[in-house]
Amino acid sequence: MIGIETRGRVRVIRLQRAEARNAVSPDLAEALYTAMLVFDADHAVDVAVLTGDGGTFCAGFDLKLAASGSGADWIKRLALDADWCDPVGDPRLGPMGPSRLMLSKPVIAAIEGYAVAGGMELALWADLRVMAEDAQFGVFCRRWGVPLIDGGTVRLPRLVGQGRANDLILTGRSVQSHEARLIGLADRLAPPGGALDAALDLADSLTGFPQGCLRADFLSARMPPRDLAAALRREWVSAGMVLTEGIEGAARFAAGKGRGGRFDGN
């Protein structure tokens, strides 16, 4: 499900469901969540790079599983308590895995191919995004009535501004690399096939700084943990009101509709 490799002081974590464009299953989500907690606690590494096998970062949550009773039940079991307020000291598993974590160390997403729907949310969870020039983002789940439940509505406006976030969330359109770089969705661009190498170079450069100072500034620059928890709880409650619509949309996808990013219903 995932591959884990350590290169110097950098931990490389790979999504390994290439046959499903690295769509996240419950098992993959739990493995990724655990791998990120282990990384954050490991004093031998300073930066993580998250990537996907097979030329795709992540196509989101596996909608074939979401359409089934088991997948829907698993998502419902991840409901957030009304009093949850600490993504640092009280980590919680999210549908995509680590989306409810706030780590003390930076994570860089190395993006090839598609980073769409929940895969885009996973990239937004990362602290920096290195994007291949032929890759693309998109809230493709808009087509199916599947809501953003992994921090997409929380993190996207903070990165690109409310107006641009509205555009991407409401339309679900594809965002190519050069636009992503222009609006702040991508931090670095790389040649096709070169996102991982570029992300590793960036990660190596970060390991050369005094880490205590780096992590203190890193923490201070981010949303306060209590505010993040409140925003994620609010997103979850909002999405819960349309969960049935999302399950129905996932069933249409599982039946073969909308492949290749089509928006025409075919």
β-sheet strand percentage: 15-25%
Shape descriptor reads globular
Please, how many helices? Answer: 11
Cα-to-Cα separation, first versus last residue: 30 Å
**Any low-confidence stretches, pLDDT <50, length ≥5?**
none
What letter string, H or E per element, gives the SSE order?
Answer: EEHEHHEEHEEHHEHEHHHH
The SS-based structural class is alpha/beta
Write down the Rg.
17 Å
Average of the residue pLDDT scores: 91
Number of strands: 9
Biggest sheet overview? 6 strands, mixed
* Residues in helix, %: 40-55%
Biggest sheet, strands in spatial order?
Answer: 1-2-3-4-6-9
Describe the overall structure.
- The radius of gyration is 17 Å and the shape is globular.
- The chain is built from eleven helices and nine strands.
- The model has no long low-confidence stretch (mean pLDDT 91).
- With 266 residues, it is α/β, with parallel strands linked by helices.
- It starts with a strand and ends in a 12-residue tail after the last helix.
- The longest helix is centred in the first third of the chain and has 16 residues, at 26-41.
- The strands form two sheets. Strands 1-2-3-4-6-9 form a six-stranded mixed beta sheet, sandwiched between helices.
